[in-house]
Amino acid sequence: MIILNKQQILDKFDADTITLLLKEGFIAFSQQQVQMPPVQHLLFEQANGDCCIKSGYLQGDSQFVVKVSGGFYDNPAQGLASNQGLMMAFSAQTGEPQALLLDEGWLTALRTALAGRIAAELCAPKHISAMGIIGTGMQARLHLIYLKSVISCRQLWVWGRSETALEEYRQYAEDEGFEVNTTQNATELARHCQLIVTTTPSREPILHAADIQPGTHITAVGADGAGKHELSPELVTKADKILVDSWAQCTEFGEISQASQQGLLAAHTLTEMGSVLAQGISFRDNDQQITLADLTGLGIQDVQIVKGILA
Amino acid sequence: MIILNKQQILDKFDADTITLLLKEGFIAFSQQQVQMPPVQHLLFEQANGDCCIKSGYLQGDSQFVVKVSGGFYDNPAQGLASNQGLMMAFSAQTGEPQALLLDEGWLTALRTALAGRIAAELCAPKHISAMGIIGTGMQARLHLIYLKSVISCRQLWVWGRSETALEEYRQYAEDEGFEVNTTQNATELARHCQLIVTTTPSREPILHAADIQPGTHITAVGADGAGKHELSPELVTKADKILVDSWAQCTEFGEISQASQQGLLAAHTLTEMGSVLAQGISFRDNDQQITLADLTGLGIQDVQIVKGILA
User: Fold this and answer.
1) Which of A12, A23, A183, B93 is found 20 to 30 A from B274 (Cα to Cα)?
2) Do A93 and B84 touch (CB under 8 A)?
């Protein structure tokens, strides 16, 4: 069995190759060519942590992948990363373990940020006077790096709860070439931004319907388990078009799940990213629409990023 | 992270210590003190294989466990074991991986056989003129070893499809001190035996209602995924009392699931092993009852056996 540590994994990571694999994966998923059992969730209230376990197999592949991914939000106070976890590849011919990728959560973070880039390609309006990032953590940083390659705008608003974290993020984003405004008022951020990414594990809505202007796209990546929500159900309902990575997962525990379970999405068509990618078209029809992409994270993304690392 | 190979794991394995941990685990499970998300199943038709992923956390423990367990039934022809897999322990405080147990499926096999021993303690009739084992594989062998310590009878009937496998099993069981009869006729086996264990991944019933005499106990451990069945639904219905490891799992995909889903178990009370263990009583009321134990395998068993190995 191959065992790779974080540095060995990052040395093998190529964003563009893996983005292509991810797109193929989303398409295969929406074409029912992927076995992807329902996600397992564990909750560790005493440690302010949670864990999800995803597995997937793309029909015809020589391997399948299992991923254990934790978020332990008190870790930073101990000098540890919030994101923890590993991925494993097994032979689909014999079941033998083939590779253990001790990525410390990086592959999940990277494939999430790359899915966000794909969503931005499909949904971003033509005119963006500023981008907005909700959150200051690892996902907020990775999104910025990968959005840079598809969005030319370098005006940035960042929302966070902690002034220290906001200042650290400002430094980071300035080093990446952005002009940065920080705020603890999400309404102010939304007033300036036409492309917003929400990246927090919040359980209370941060953005509300009244905050959002026509012609805005929001990608929500924080909700990956029951009870996590960054957008109010009314904001979700206000969206003209909603892109989901998985109809089943998003309606069960994604950002849109509350609105869906309250029957507020009757007038909406939920379109899977794989269906849009298969057609090779933009998801957005005009520059006035409000679009929303709800990304819960799919086992097939883990399958594809592991394939890209081990290739 | 600690990495243990199969031999290192087996060196640390103590059947009696782990049996106590398993009993505690079954009780905690039935008392809702265990987080155990629904099992993930993957199917590899092209390879005659399947895989299940289980996870579990006993409230208050310092670690949680994830297990990947495969059955690839063409492996023996390539000189590989059918059972594959590994178990992992993670910190419930930080999410960090703590231990990787490369057990090649042995811990699953061992905790299954030990659960079978617990079921036999709870259900076996007083009078056993012969024990019957359906199957000749690893589980058939492990059950024999652990049943020896709770059942004094040394008369054995073994059913298998292959004469070669039956002869190999005969040799094995004779070395363990049994007088062995082999057969390819399960009805003949059932006529002689009051304690029967079924251990195959069969998708067609091997034992039928007419085969079973009053005063018989059957432990079924083969059905751990949709479509696997060793007993006919009519035989399941004929049982006077049914013990299950998990009400939810057994009715979904266990040996009793067909009968349950066909509405044939209306008159039956399904009792969880943990409830019986908590009361410290025998499950069997008299020597004429037909009892059935349906063991699908629980994530809490993996939690407890890993705890026992790492202690």
Assistant:
1) B93
2) no
Domain locations in chain A as residue ranges: 2-107+300-310, 125-298
Q: What is the largest CA-CA distance in chain B?
A: 55
The label of the residue with tokens 């008022």 reads: A185
Q: Which of B23, B67, B228, B241 is catalytic?
A: B67
What does the alpha-carbon distance between residue B302 and residue A53 come to, in Å, rounded to a whole number? Answer: 16
Indicate the helix (H) or strand (E) that contains A16. helix A15-30
Interface of A with B (CB under 8 A): 1, 35, 37-38, 40-44, 46-47, 49, 51, 53, 55, 57, 64, 66, 68, 70-72, 75, 78, 80, 84-86, 88, 90, 92-97, 100, 102
Taking domain A2-107+300-310, whether its CATH number is 2.60.40.10 is answered by no
Catalytic: A67? yes
CB A116 within 8 A of CB A219: yes
- Report strand pairing: B40-44 vs B63-72: unpaired
Q: What is the mean pLDDT of residues B31-49?
A: 96
Tokens describing residue A194: 């036409």
Rounded to an integer, the average pLDDT of B119-140 is: 96
Are A182 and A135 in contact by the 8 Å Cβ rule? The answer is no
Instruction: Give the model confidence (pLDDT) of A100-156 as tens digits.
Output: 999 998 999 999 999 999 999 999 999 999 999 999 998 999 999 999 999 999 999
Cβ neighbours of A64 in B, within 8 Å: 42, 44, 51
Q: B169-218: per-residue pLDDT in tens?
A: 999 999 999 999 999 999 999 999 999 999 998 889 999 999 999 999 99
Say if residues B301 and B82 touch (Cβ distance below 8 Å). Answer: no
A125-298 has the same fold as A2-107+300-310: no
Distance CA B112, CA B106 (A): 10
Output the pLDDT for position B269. Answer: 84
Q: What's the token pair of residue B228?
A: 């696997």
Over residues B5-34, the mean pLDDT reads 97
Whole-structure pTM value: 0.86
What is the bridge-based pairing of β-strands B49-58 and B40-44? Answer: antiparallel
- Assigned CATH class of B125-298: alpha beta
